[in-house]
Amino acid sequence: MGGAVRIILIVLAVVVIAAGAGYFLTPPIASRSQTLTVEAPASTVLARLASTPVGSTVSEGITVAEAASVEGDTVTVPVTYADQSTGRAIYTVTSEGEGSRVQVKLEQDLGANPLDRFAVLTGGDVAPLIEPASAAVSADLGALPNASFEGLQYSIVDIASRPFFFVQNCSDASAESITSIISQAVVAIPPVMNQNRLTPNGPLMAVEPRVVSGQYCYQVGYPFTGRAPRALLIGQVGQTPSGQALRIVYTGSEEDVLDEVYNRMDALLAAAHLDNPATTEDDWTTYEVYNDDPTQAGGSRNREIYYVVQGDVSALTRIAPPSEAVAVPEAAPAAPAAETPATATEPEAAPATP
Known about the structure:
The protein is α+β, with helices and mostly antiparallel strands. The protein is built from seven helices and 17 strands. The longest helix has 24 residues, at about 1-25.
């Protein structure tokens, strides 16, 4: 009996010694976490956190040191603290209704000093940092559009500028207002072009370079060939957008284009951190090319939508790789009219290597 007790005591002593050795030999980590909710789909939230740029700050005193890694629903971002110690910001994202729940966890690697073991219990230097870090993450994710980019198909193309005759007007975002402006342009622009000996060189386009007082301001017109007039009472002459662009083929109605294309593309740009003016040269210029009759009920059902690239899109293509160039559906024949521009032709665009 005594031998059995002695063996048990020896085993317990070995376990205690091993546990103590493990405690003191394993590098200690101080950590604290908070949970927040976001009104955006989990896929969009996860992608934005995963594309956090190296060198950016999580919050004051916490700098992203290396590119994030993703495993399942968890994003791990190596960080450096103000005292040059290392650690991680770890985000666990789960769906909650139509939005997301995000656990924000800060970890800090501690030194070999046995006194550092107490920081494991108290949270050390990360304890006072978790609240401002969570607030900063919440504010950043709170600006995301409540949309998902999943399933969005686009290609990357290079486009050349062409002479462009256009008129400019603004409207609200309603489908009725937009189709009204486009329909008026189809009637009003061709006579002015004919009078000035300008020949349409492609289908009707609507360039949307800016938002003014909450309204969309369009430059609606046609690429053209011919000598540009020196003075115009009606309309203006400029150049169509050029450069690298993201191209989406859309065959739905005007009423659904915001949800089907623009909101989803905005979610993709935001997920890739390309919605931040500090990381781009300017606001993204978008434009539409109408390959059929844009005056039909519900607007054009055969159009291309372009986002002219600003900045490096490598983060975007990692999140959602481009598809092969999507063929443009065959354009419907234009109604014959003396002053109506020629039948639509595809814009001068050559697919770039994804």
